[in-house]
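Workshop exercise sheet. Pairs work together: one partner reads the sequence aloud, the other fills in the structure field after running the prediction. Swap roles for the next sheet.
Pair: D.N. / O.F.
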Amino acid sequence: MMKLIPTEQAVGHVLCHDMTRIVKGVSKGPAFRKGHIVTPEDIPLLLAMGKENLYVWEMEPGMVHENDAAQVLYRICAGDAPNLRPSEVKEGKIEVSAGEDGLLLVDQERLRAVNALGELMIAARHGHQPVKKGDKLAGTRIIPLVIREEKLRSAQAAAGDRPLLELKPFRPRKAAIVTTGSEVQKGLIQDTFTPVLEEKVAEYGCTVLGHVCPGDDAGAITAAILDYKARGAELILCSGGMSVDPDDRTPLAIKNTGAEIVSYGAPVLPGAMLMVAYLDGVPVAGLPGCVMYSKRTVFDLVLPLFLAGVPVTAADLAAMGHGGLCLDCPACTYPHCGFGKGW
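Structure field:
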């Protein structure tokens, strides 16, 4: 409740607006910010500023100051994660930033439940995107100057016992590239696919364990995949285009390794013909030809998940349909684009 009281009686109360101080020829600015809790030391300065009365919030039992409440929202977002960083709390606001490079995960359903409560807010970046150390990931704020403890308890209950945000660090992996296609194997055309893949994995500090061109023979492709798995490959990329027939060549070869097929196809353009599989935990990807010539494709969406150790599920791929159309804008800001999700 806002009320007007004599300045001498304002100790312990919350200011309802900024208090500007002007020193001629020196400065003009807020001596006290909205939300400041008045202390005994503040009284002489306030009186010297001509503030004999103040509009304050009366702190009733069960009410929490905006800055203290913002700390609660930060814990809802980040918990005690060592790789997430809080900003200094100011006017009921705390920002969450990345303490290292990694993949940001956001629980959208629980975030929506918290924001539906009103009087408080958490604004987060789209999840399943790579972020850099120092990037802002979320901002939290209490809308009023004070908020009921009951509302904060409701927010904690809506969020559950896990933080809304998680930052999974990238781990450079040993990648192997299996280039299919008889035209490449026979040297009829130049292999322009492999350099693209080498560049993309190098962005994350990965090394290429090896590269082989087994042609179009499904048995040879299967053998190449299994050989690289035995040699310690932690990510196996099969390039050269994917057939529309799931029983033909590369898709069949991946299946014949005994790998668990997660999905053949993804609701992303360019990149609908992606195959994702796991061979004893090692990601095996059948990459469509668009990865070779398009600036950003479905591969750029799944590669960070592979390198952060986040299992790619059929549900993850299905969800990529929202924002899954890349218009390849001239001023592409990837990895912050997310195929239009940040527009």
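Discussion prompt: Confidence is low (pLDDT under 50) at residues 338-343. What would you look at next?
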